[in-house]
Design goal:
Elements lengths: L31 H21 L9 E6 L5 H12 L3 E5 L12 H10 L4 E6 L4 H8 L4 E6 L5 H15 L6 E5 L6 H10 L5 E5 L8 H9 L4 E4 L11 E4 L10 H7 L7 H4 L7 E3 L20 H19 L4
Parallel strand pairs: 1-2, 1-3, 3-4, 5-6, 5-8, 6-7, 8-9
Helix pairs in contact: 1-10, 2-10, 3-4, 5-6, 5-10
The structure holds N-carbamoyl-L-aspartate.
Length: 324
């Protein structure tokens, strides 16, 4: 149903907005031209917020923010994005979860919300839930994380941050560290970065490797990647160190979680071996994997990342509602 979404009769905005009425389900929907478009609008949104705080671009529009899993940043930045563009939000957090595959609960909820709202942001614990919702909805669905699957809006804000902080994407060496098996942010980020000439390093405990289907995407585009357990081995050569939390809620055996949860800790000692021009990223929340002692290091980019999340989500909302 991706091409038949109904967003009402809005005037076309920028010439190259291909997103009007579209779902945002996966990073595979984006090529370099579309990424440039979103990043340019994201930058305009940043200027807008810094100069004026808000605008009335989406006045009269309503976002349903439907979260079946916990969230602080994604949920509140989507809300802030909509409010700063003059729209309104129906916030639905901590919904009692029931199986999409067995019951009708998610489709019915989506049908309900789209009778009231113009766009739906969905976070759900099941892989593929956003695609199922999009199948039933006529209004645009934005995937805010579907279980261990994807988190496309996070990957967009991550790329935007790398580009802003380092001034380039091509030519970078990018390490992803921690839970690469269950971390949906690194799945989406890897699949988005293949649009650029980057080199990948995957640093993970044996039991938490990057899934083969993601590695296949990397192989398919001829990108180089290297896998290791040892972060010390690579810290001196990377431009981006993207650190992730071990995703406790995805483990069936908590003993396994306990065994690997503290495998990587980015602290001052480790950072003393890093390049001067590089950045440390984290989608947050962090548990122990980044020491608070490096928060004031200019290379720590995770607070800039979360601020950028609002600008990128403003760009996405404007784009799918036809005003980007
Ligand atoms: C991430 C998520 O939900 O996947 N958080 C976020 O959206 N910033 C990462 C995580 O929970 O570890």
């Amino acid at each position: 149903m991706t091409n038949t979404k109904d967003t009402g009769q809005l005037p076309a905005g920028h010439v190259s907005n291909d997103f009007r009425g579209q779902d945002i389900l996966s990073v595979s929907q984006f090529d370099r031209a579309k990424l440039d478009y979103i990043f340019n609008v994201g930058q305009e949104m940043q200027v807008l917020v810094e100069r004026f705080g808000s605008a009335d671009l989406l006045q009269g529009k309503i976002l349903a923010n439907l979260f079946y899993e916990p969230s602080t940043r994604t949920s509140s930045s989507f809300m802030a994005a909509m409010l700063r563009l003059g729209g309104q939000v129906i916030p639905i957090n901590n919904v009692q979860y029931s199986s999409v595959t067995k019951g009708e609960s998610l489709p019915d909820t989506i049908r309900t919300l789209e009778s009231y709202a113009d766009v739906i942001v969905l976070r759900h614990p099941e892989l593929g839930a956003a695609a199922i919702a999009a199948h039933y909805a006529k209004k645009p669905i934005i995937n805010a994380g579907d279980g261990v699957g994807e988190h496309p809006t996070q990957a967009l804000l991550d790329l935007f941050t790398i580009n802003q902080d380092l001034g380039q994407l091509d030519g970078l060496k990018i390490a992803m560290v921690g839970d690469l098996k269950y971390g949906r942010t690194v799945h989406s980020l890897t699949k988005l970065l293949i649009n650029y000439g980057v080199e990948f390093v995957f640093v993970n405990p044996d039991i938490l490797p990057m899934p083969e289907d993601v590695l296949d995407v990397v192989r398919g585009t001829g990108h180089t990647f290297h896998q290791t357990k040892n972060v010390h081995e690579i810290i001196g050569e990377v431009d981006v160190l993207y650190v992730t939390r071990v995703q406790k809620e995805r483990f069936t055996d908590l003993e396994q979680y306990d065994r690997v949860k503290d495998d990587y800790v980015v602290d001052e000692a480790l950072m003393s071996h890093a390049k001067q021009k590089m950045i440390v990223m984290h989608p947050l929340p962090r548990i122990n994997e980044i020491s608070y002692a490096i928060d004031d290091d200019p290379r720590a980019a995770y607070f800039r990342q979360m601020r950028n999340g609002m600008y990128i989500r403003m760009a996405l909302l404007a784009a799918v509602l036809g005003k980007g």
